[in-house]
Design a protein that fits this description.
The chain contains seven helices and no strands. The chain is an all-alpha fold. Helix 2 packs across helix 3. The protein is globular, with a radius of gyration of 15 Å.
Length: 129
Amino acid sequence: METPREKGLKLFREVFGDDMADGVVALGQSTEAFGANQANWTLDFPFGTVWQGEGLERKLRSCVVLGLLIAQGARDEIKFHTRMGLKNGLSRTELEEIFYTAIPYAGFPAANVAKAAMLDVFAEMEAEG
């Protein structure tokens, strides 16, 4: 039976690739890096437990997470989860609707942060081919 860490690392690797996953593992194993425990907690809890839940499809979970991140104005996390949402089956049109839905609830400033982050991801992915 896989541990939450193993499940989390598998999902993280699937979504963000080997380089980023290996970086998170290395950070978590570091005895000197600032915030090393956060890397372990990321693999154990959100990716190893919450994202493994059977009550929501991953695509729907991406919608929820993106809405919350937009409300927080969490630019970098919006970028990560826009990429993850695309991997989980969200289309660019659906991401745009999530953005529009957030505007009356999170406000225009938070939505502007999200729009810029999402557009960055689209441009990065186009450049990657």
